[in-house]
Design goal:
single chain; about 425 residues; mainly alpha; Rossmann fold; four-stranded parallel β-sheet; 4 strands; about 65% helix
Amino acid sequence: MLKAKAAAAALLSPSCPEDDAAPGRYKIWELEAGTHCSVIGTCLSLDDLHRLIRKADIQIAADADEHDIHGYFVTQAARRSVFSKLIHKALDRKYAQQLARFRSCTPDGSWVLWRQAMSSGDVAGAYWALMTHKAAPRKMRIRAYNEIHMLSHLMGKSSRDDIKRIRQLEASHAESTQRLERARARADTAVQERDCRIRALEARLATATTVPRGAPATTAEGRRRDAQIDRLRARFATLERRLKVERARARSAECKLSTIANVREGEVLMAPTLAPPAISSEVARAANGGADETLAGQALLYVGGYRDVTPRLRAHVEEKGGTFLYHDGGIEMQNTRLSGLVSQADAVLCPVGCVSHDACLQLKRLCKRHGKRFVLLRSAGLSGFVSAVAEITASRVGGSTASTYASTALRVGELGDGD
């Protein structure tokens, strides 16, 4: 505090005769009394001081602290000596760039550069250049000194706040570390307990799986387990027997299906030579392929029958110039689609021996509602279908208008009325 007051008093005293607007620069020992402390403390770091001590080969007491070293440099800088010249040269080398900017500046320019340095926080080089610049007015140097002095106070307060904050963070870190250690200990304990439970369960499982088959159970739980195993074995044997029966039925059905396919193939081969008993002369002429007897774009809906015969039926209808519509009678297709298909068709054909009764009755009602021709076929073979198509073609060529549902259904056969 006494040094600060002495420095302020020296700076506020009347200026020297060689002060203000003098050319060149001051040497460090030519600076006003009291300014050396701020110059050394602001412009040279502790590393710089130790480097200069080693360069000058100066012996420092072993118990000297940083404040003692700083005081020694301030004392040496205030008087002209080999060591003060070494200090001055070190400062000039370190801040050569800032010295070059201040060298040709007017007082106003020097003040602008100083304000820029204060705003950026990089004040060390600018302070050294300004304090040694003779063209800078004394009041300007006093102002710069005062600002550096106050800045040191602010930095001291900031350092104290930082130290306080660091201590608080260290305490918080220690507490967090303790909590983490406690949580880790709890987690380790939980893992150990879990491992113990796993080992116990593995031991029980090993004991349960190593019991000889058929060995008598010694506990109520073991007896219940054995009873459940016996029930499962009996059920498994029953299912095996059922599986064998079903496989036999499947083989029998495959044989029957093969027989039906052979019979159906025989019907196809005999179709050109055999005519159905109820076919008329007009139908025979149509079956022989009259040049002018075609469906002329009529749509025929075929419901039921065998799916593998369907491509042949479709080819025959398309050869006659018609459109073939198909529904499997409810095997895979929904019967709800029948209404839309019947409305699109001009005639409906249905083999009574290869369609469900429900589908047949539903077709009967739909054809009656829409006024569509309904033809019931005795078989699902190709010959009966060809004869029915020939009859439909002949009735179109002959101009018959009596192809309504009622006349056709009564002629071909009787069905139970489902209305």
